[in-house]
C-alpha cells in the first residue's frame, strides 16, 4: 500500500492551485527547495512520477491529478471533522448521557432536551432513569456524563470525584382528599396537619424528607400507610386514606385530590446536578447543564418565581 502523507499532499494541492514552486513556497511559508524536496519524497513514497519539468516551470502528471482527485475526498472529510470538533468544543455538538431520578425526567430533562433540539440540534442527549445511588455509580464508572439527584441523596459536596451544581428548590405541597375540612383552608401550615394519618415510604430518602419536614414543624407524623410510588400515594389520598407531602415536580392532577401550598413552614427538597470533577462546564456537557438550569428556572418554586 502506498504511503499517503497528508502534509505532502497539501503541498502538491497548493502547487496545483498556485502554479509554481516559488508561489507555493510563499503561500506555505517554506523555501522553494523545501517544497521541491517534499514533493520528491512524496513521489518516492507513492511510487509514481508527480511532476515533470516544462521549461523553467513544472507541471503535474496524470498520476498527480489522480492522486489529488482522491486526496480531495480526504481533505473534505477532514474539514468536516474540524468543523464538528470545533462545534463540540463550543458546546454545539456531541452526545451527553444523563442519569436522572424519575420525577426529574419529565420535569427537567424533557424540557431541557426539547429546548436543545431547537437551539443545539447537534447535541444528542441520552437519558437513563436511575435512583440516586445508582446514578452516582454510573457517573463514577463513566457510563453517564451528568447526574441529577436530590441533595439529600447526593455524595458530599467535598467528594473529590464529583462537582455538584445546585439546580432547583422543589417545594413540597400537601395532598389532601378533595372533601377534607382543610382542603380550602386559608394560610395552611404543616403544623395544622399534625393529627392527620400520613402516607409515605417505609424507608429511604422520601421517608426521611417527610419525617424531617414534620418534625421541623413540631410533630412526628403518624404513618397510616407506606407506599413509594406517587400514583399509589395519590390514589390513597383520593380515597380518603390519609394525606401526603408531594414534591411539586411529581404532582399529577387528580380530580379527588386537593394540592395545597404550605406557607409559613413550607418545606422544600433541593435538586442538584453533578459531573465528574475536571469535566467542568465546557463543551456539550456544559450546554446540557445550562439547558437544565433554564428548565429549572422556569419552574414554579424556583427562587424568583
TrEMBL record:
Annotated protein name in UniProt: LysR family transcriptional regulator
List keywords of the entry alphabetically: DNA-binding, Transcription, Transcription regulation
Q: Show the PROSITE patterns listed in the entry.
A: HTH_LYSR
Is Transcription included in the keywords of this UniProt record? yes
Give the HTH lysR-type domain ranges: 4-61
Pfam families for this protein: HTH_1, LysR_substrate
Write down the CDD domains for this protein, in alphabetical order.
PBP2_LTTR_like_6
Q: Which InterPro entries match?
A: LysR_HTH_N, LysR_subst-bd, WH-like_DNA-bd_sf, WH_DNA-bd_sf
Give the family per the record. Belongs to the LysR transcriptional regulatory family.
Question: Which source organism?
Answer: Streptomyces anthocyanicus
Amino acid at each position: 500500500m502506498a504511503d499517503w502523507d497528508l502534509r505532502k499532499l497539501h503541498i502538491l494541492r497548493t502547487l496545483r492551485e498556485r502554479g509554481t514552486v516559488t508561489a507555493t513556497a510563499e503561500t506555505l511559508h517554506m523555501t522553494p527547495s523545501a517544497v521541491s524536496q517534499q514533493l520528491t519524497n512524496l513521489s518516492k513514497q507513492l511510487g509514481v512520477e508527480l511532476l515533470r519539468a516544462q521549461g523553467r516551470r513544472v507541471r503535474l502528471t496524470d498520476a498527480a491529478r489522480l492522486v489529488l482527485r482522491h486526496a480531495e475526498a480526504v481533505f473534505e472529510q477532514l474539514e468536516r471533522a474540524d468543523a464538528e470538533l470545533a462545534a463540540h468544543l463550543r458546546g454545539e455538538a456531541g452526545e451527553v448521557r444523563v442519569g436522572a431520578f424519575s420525577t426529574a425526567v419529565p420535569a427537567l430533562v424533557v424540557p431541557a432536551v426539547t429546548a436543545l433540539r431547537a437551539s443545539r440540534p447537534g447535541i444528542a442527549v441520552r437519558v437513563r432513569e436511575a435512583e440516586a445511588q445508582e446514578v452516582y455509580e454510573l457517573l463514577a464508572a463513566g457510563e453517564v456524563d451528568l447526574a441529577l439527584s436530590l441533595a439529600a441523596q447526593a455524595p458530599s459536596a467535598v467528594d473529590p470525584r464529583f462537582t455538584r451544581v445546585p439546580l432547583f428548590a422543589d417545594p413540597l405541597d400537601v395532598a389532601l382528599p378533595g372533601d377534607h375540612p382543610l382542603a380550602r383552608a386559608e394560610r395552611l401550615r404543616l403544623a395544622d396537619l399534625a393529627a392527620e394519618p400520613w402516607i409515605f415510604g417505609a424507608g429511604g430518602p422520601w421517608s426521611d424528607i417527610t419525617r424531617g419536614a414534620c418534625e421541623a414543624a413540631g410533630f412526628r407524623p403518624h404513618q397510616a400507610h407506606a407506599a413509594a410510588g406517587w400514583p399509589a400515594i395519590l390514589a390513597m389520598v383520593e380515597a380518603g386514606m390519609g394525606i401526603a407531602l408531594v414534591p411539586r415536580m411529581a404532582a399529577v392532577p387528580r380530580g379527588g385530590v386537593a394540592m395545597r401550598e404550605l406557607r409559613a413552614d413550607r418545606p422544600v427538597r433541593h435538586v442538584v446536578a453533578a459531573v465528574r470533577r475536571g469535566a467542568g462546564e465546557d463543551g456539550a456537557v456544559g450546554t446540557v447543564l445550562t439547558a437544565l438550569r433554564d428548565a429549572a428556572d422556569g419552574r414554579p418554586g424556583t427562587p424568583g418565581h
